[in-house]
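Comment on the following before class.
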Amino acid sequence: MSSAMSTANGLMVVTKIVPLEDQCDIPMKNFISESKTLAMQYEKVPEMTRLFQKGYPMQLGIVQIFLGMMAVVIGVLGLLSSEFLGEVPLCLGIFVMISGSISAAANKGKHFCLIKGTLAMNIISSLLALAAIGYFCWELAKQLQDECIKPEESGYNSEYWNCKASVNGYKNVVNGMKGLLLVMAVFEFCVSTTISVFSVKAIRQHSFDQLVGDGSFAGLNSTVPLLTEEDLTAPASP
């Protein structure tokens, strides 16, 4: 026996799935109590929390932490190789890990301050990811210098060609690291933007709930007519 819950047109529908051989043994009271329990659990979740959790902050936060750790490691390697600015992936990785940690911590969506912090940090991470995308595109367009000295005499020179092979291998490794950082920056921009969008929706819903709670929009749901029958039947004054 299993149950499912869905919403449609502002209504909540609870469906009970029962095997055919067990249909005579179903206690009706248990079915009603379980339906009430599911309805109460659904109603207890605030709309702000539902909107925020639609963006999967826990899962995306873990992805951000993983991306940040990889960016930090590659940034340290970049500092050692001095072929590109290792500070760029290093700073990006630190901010991304902080954003992922806050996003994962705000997964329950019940603390408004955590949601606002998630929005702020993910906006910063998105901007840093955009800057990193531009930087690594420029780095990939550059050509690494070839420091091998070509011999003046013609013919085969083993030292020169060994140097060329080593330099080409080094270029491939460096360009591979730059390409990986570019892909990670694009991925981080998409993840940060997604979390930011759902954070904004949750913040707007929280502001709307506060306005409704303060009575600012109490007149919108009022059932009192603006004009009575006496006003409609009264003759117009000349």
In short: The helical segments are 28-44, 47-53, 57-81, 87-105, 112-141, 158-214, 229-233. The domain at 49-146+161-208 is CATH 1.20.120 (Four Helix Bundle (Hemerythrin (Met), subunit A)).
